[in-house]
C-alpha cells in the first residue's frame, strides 16, 4: 500500500441554490489547492433548503464530489426516493429503521485506497430513530477487514451527543465530523486513539442569514411563535468544511484543518 498521505476534503451542508453554485464553482479549485484525493459533501439542504434530488446530486458528482451525505431532510424531495436506492454514493442516515429507501454507508475506491463513508443521525432534539452508536459499531465491525479509512458524518443537533459518538468510536474510525447546525465550530482535534473530530464543519450557503435562511423570517417566527417556513436567503455564499490528512497504512489521522472561504459566484 502507498506510503503517501491520503487527503479528504469534506464540505458542510449545502443550502439552496447559492450553496450549490458555490460548491460547484469552487470544488475543483479547493481540491487542487489542498491536494485532496477525495471529496465528501453534505447535500441535506441543497434543494430550496430541504433535501436533495437526482439532478442536484448529479451536478455535485460532476463538480467533483465522490460521496454525498444527507440527514433529517433527506426524505423531503419525494422524487429522490428511487434515486436513493439506485445510487449508492448518495447516503441517508444508516440508523433509520430497516426497509427505508437508500443506503447508510458506501465503500469507495479512490486513487488506490478503499474508503468507507458512513452517515448517521442523532436523536437528541431530533426524530427518535435507531441508536446511532450501536448502528455505527455494527457497521464498522462488519467492514473492518475491507478498509483502513472510515469517515463518519454525524448529522446531529447536540454537541454532547457528537462528542460522545467520537469518543465511542475513537481508534476504530478515521474521522467523525458533525453536520446539521450550519455553524462551524473551532474544536478540531485528534483523539487519543487516532480518530479526528470536529463538532460541526459548518455549511455552504448564504452568509448574511440565519443558518442560511432569510433573517426576517427567523425573527418573525421567534417573535410570533407562528410556524413560518424557512426561506433560503439570496445573499452571497460562504463555504465551510475541513481537510483531513490520513496515514493510509494505519487509517489514523495525521492532521485536521478547518476551511472557510467566501464564494465568488
Would you spell out the secondary-structure blueprint of this structure?
Elements: E1 6-11, E2 13-14, H1 16-33, E3 38-42, H2 54-63, E4 67-69, H3 81-86, E5 105-110, E6 113-121, H4 132-143, E7 149-155, H5 159-169, E8 175-179, E9 189-190, E10 196-198, E11 203-206, H6 215-224, E12 237-247, E13 252-262
Parallel strand pairs: 1-3, 2-11, 3-4, 6-7, 7-8, 8-10
Antiparallel strand pairs: 1-12, 5-6, 9-10, 11-12, 12-13
Description:
The protein has six helices and 13 strands. The chain has helices spanning 16-33, 54-63, 81-86, 132-143, 159-169, 215-224, and strands at 6-11, 13-14, 38-42, 67-69, 105-110, 113-121, 149-155, 175-179, 189-190, 196-198, 203-206, 237-247, 252-262. Helix 1 packs parallel to helix 2 (54-63). The protein has one domain: Metallo-dependent phosphatases (Purple Acid Phosphatase, chain A, domain 2). The chain is globular. The chain has 265 residues and is α/β, with parallel strands linked by helices.
Total beta-strand segments: 13
Mean pLDDT: 95
State the share of residues found in helices, binned by percent.
Answer: 25-40%
> Based on CA inertia axes, which overall geometry fits?
globular
Instruction: Report the β-strand fraction as a percent range.
Output: 25-35%
Domains counted in the coordinates: how many? 1
The profile of the biggest β sheet is: 7 strands, mixed
CATH class: Alpha Beta
Spell out the CATH superfamily: Metallo-dependent phosphatases
Q: Low-confidence runs (pLDDT<50, min 5 residues)?
A: none
Supply the helix-strand structural class: alpha/beta
- CATH topology: the name is Purple Acid Phosphatase, chain A, domain 2
Radius of gyration: 17 Å
Helix run count: 6
CATH architecture tag? 4-Layer Sandwich
Helix and strand string, N-terminal first?
Answer: EEHEHEHEEHEHEEEEHEE
N- to C-terminal separation?
40 Å
